[in-house]
Design goal:
The complex is a heterodimer of chains A (483) and B (106).
Chain A lengths: L3 H8 L5 H15 L7 H18 L37 H11 L2 E7 L2 E6 L2 H9 L4 E2 L25 H9 L5 H20 L7 E2 H18 L6 H11 L3 H4 L5 H27 L8 H7 L10 H32 L1 H9 L4 H12 L4 E6 L3 E3 L2 E3 L4 E5 H4 L35 H18 E6 L4 E2 L8 E3 L1 E6 L3
Parallel strand pairs in A: 2-8
Antiparallel strand pairs in A: 1-2, 3-5, 4-12, 5-8, 6-7, 9-12, 10-11
Helix pairs in contact in A: 3-11, 7-8, 7-17, 8-9, 8-13, 9-13, 13-14, 13-15, 13-17, 15-17
Chain B lengths: L2 E5 L5 E5 L6 H7 L19 E4 L12 H7 L9 E3 L13 E3 L6
Classes of the chains: A alpha+beta (483), B alpha+beta (106).
């Protein structure tokens, strides 16, 4: 597959003769594939093509999101509730909106959102049902509420159904296998020590930039065997990849997304070729993601399938970035909102592993996963029609009073804390869950050794997105432990 | 009353009483066997109650469904006799059975 063909397929019947001519000139080169045209140039080509297409023919409009205060949910008719708003989390309205849906209309249809019509599944048990039934609900072609930007139809196994999903996932899952996890533990700890030892005490600073982003960037550089000094690019690329307005209601622009996609594609292609050359020279491959892809029969030629290649890179980037980063921040936020829990933690650090699960539930760093019904399905009194979009709101299920005791309370010693939806269930269950838990556990072990108090000194700033539940800033002040 | 023995990756052994009709996962949880997480609560949807059944006992533990195989394929520690313990219903015929726990529940 090449990346221009879907756009061309969609476009040609409507295109002006001039453009058709352009497509004719482009297509022979494209058919010869990635071996001749580097991925980043293909992406640049797609970008130019999309720009031209948009000026000549009316493509799908990209929604524009301008922030206004969301109304109190009680003032809305049930059918007008739209939980796809990228401001729901940012404006702290999400709890009341989802509670109303869970109580009054747990399987809810919104017929005219900026992302098109969709069903919301909001109760824990119903979400479990949808997540388990990949035979009834397809993860294809994408797991976000909105589609991918035109011309960037990346393919990833999180958005593939069995059996193709299984082969691709198996090719990369060893990156987080026990052997790797054990090797990573001491590395993660030494980095956490390094970052924490260099933090200022008694003056406010931004936890997001200085701790959460720094630690996750270092981890990503290791997972990809990416040049360490360039690690900050990974977090930036990941942020841009998840920020497309038509996909998640984010603040990204089409130009920025294409530019980043082309830059990242170039860099990762070079990285692939480097590893490939090392392999050809007889060097033993490492356990980084690209080496694993190169050593698996199903994926060793993935570089020749650019959308799949970029899709897998993007999946592991976003999957390993936003989620852990925002959990690292939200733990601080939660313990400030529930100060008794902080005292409990300092008295009993053995609660850390349980608290890590509770943080992941409480934050639910990814709000949902989207499916498409493969046939008509009855769910909690509603008939979901074949082809309808179905959104499993993990953020709501994790606060479902029917499944979780006092769900809005943050309790570090919660019973059955592992029983939460944040990792999803079924064949798409989060692959990096153990790595994420390990990173958070180590962070908290090292924090408790050093600091008496971590005080949030200003209101947090949040990400604009209906998908990523994240922080852009959290100002904190540290008090060192008396030695 | 028969018993089943869980052997942790570290080698520690835990013999627990069979309660006929309960799942193997449930009796592990009820008896506090370490190394079984069971995050999904027995829905065959997370893979965190993975056990490796001693080869001499696989004829007693029933068939593996396609769903269970899909979940087991997701763990890097999968072995030939791997099972999800939530999908094994215990019977007195399992008296003396030995199952091993993986290093990590993924």
């Amino acid at each position: 597959m090449n990346i221009l063909s879907p756009a061309i397929e969609k476009g040609t019947e409507l295109l002006s003769p001039a453009l058709e001519k352009g497509a004719e000139i482009l297509s022979p080169a494209i058919e010869k594939g990635a071996a001749l045209v580097p991925i980043h140039l293909q992406i640049k080509g797609a970008h130019v093509f999309q720009k031209v297409k948009k000026t000549i023919i009316k493509g799908k409009p990209i929604p524009v999101f301008i922030e206004t205060p969301l109304p109190d949910v009680e003032t809305l008719a049930i059918e007008d509730i739209d939980v796809s708003s990228p401001f729901l989390y940012k404006q702290n309205r999400w709890q009341s909106y989802f509670k109303r849906l869970r109580d009054e209309c747990p399987v809810h249809y919104q017929k005219s959102s900026p992302f098109g019509p969709f069903w919301s599944v909001t109760r824990y048990e119903d979400i479990m049902f949808v997540d388990k039934h990949h035979d009834l609900f397809s993860a294809e072609p994408i797991i976000s509420l909105g589609g991918r930007p035109d011309g960037l139809a990346i393919e990833t196994f999180i958005a593939m159904d069995p059996p193709k999903h299984d082969l691709q996932r198996q090719a990369v899952q060893d990156v987080v296998a026990p052997k790797n996890l054990k090797e990573m533990e001491s590395l993660i700890r030494s980095r956490a020590e390094d970052v924490l030892d260099n933090l200022p005490t008694d003056v406010p600073f931004d936890w997001v930039q200085n701790v959460s982003i720094e630690l996750t960037s270092r981890m990503l550089a290791t997972l990809f065997n990416f040049p360490y000094e360039e690690r900050h690019k990974l977090a930036y690329w990941s942020d841009v990849a998840a920020s497309s307005p038509e996909t998640t209601g984010g603040t990204g622009s089409t130009d920025e997304i294409f530019t980043v996609a082309a830059t990242a594609a170039k860099k990762f292609s070079e990285l692939w070729r480097t590893r490939e050359a090392e392999k050809a020279a007889g060097k033993e491959l490492g356990f980084d993601l690209i080496s694993l892809l190169l050593s698996n029969e199903n994926t060793k030629d993935m570089i020749d399938r650019p959308m799949e290649f970029m899709g897998n890179i993007a999946l592991l980037l976003v999957g390993g970035n936003d989620t852990t980063r925002n959990s690292m921040t939200s733990g601080i936020h939660a313990l400030n909102q529930f100060p008794d829990e902080f005292i409990k933690l300092k008295d009993n650090p053995s609660l850390i592993p349980n608290m890590v699960s509770e943080i992941i539930r409480w934050q639910t760093p990814l709000a949902y996963m989207r499916r498409v019904a493969k046939e008509d399905v009855e769910l909690n009194g509603q008939t979901i029609k074949k082809g309808d979009k179905v959104v499993m709101w993990y953020a709501s299920g994790n606060r479902d009073e029917r499944a979780i005791d006092q769900p809005d309370q943050f309790m570090i010693d919660r019973k059955n804390a592992r029983k939460h939806l944040s990792f999803g269930f079924g064949v798409h269950r989060c692959m990096g869950n153990r790595l994420a838990e390990m990173q958070l556990r180590i962070l908290w072990e090292e924090l408790l050794k050093r600091f008496e108090n971590i005080e949030v000194v200003d209101d947090p700033q949040y990400v604009q997105s209906n998908f990523v539940r994240g922080y852009t800033q959290l100002m904190v002040k540290l008090t060192a432990k008396k030695s | 009353m028969g018993s089943i023995t869980f052997i942790e990756h570290s080698g520690d052994q835990h013999a627990v009483e069979i309660e006929e009709g309960k799942s193997l996962m449930q009796i592990a949880m009820d008896n506090g066997v370490p190394g079984v997480d069971a995050d999904c609560g027995g829905e065959c949807a997370c893979g965190t109650c993975h056990v490796i059944v001693d080869a001499n006992w696989t004829s007693k533990t029933g068939n593996v469904t396609e769903e269970e195989t899909l979940m087991l394929d997701m763990t890097p520690e999968k072995a030939d006799t791997s099972r999800l313990s939530c999908q094994i219903t215990t019977t007195e015929a399992m008296d003396g059975m030995v199952v091993r726990l993986p290093e990590f529940q993924m």
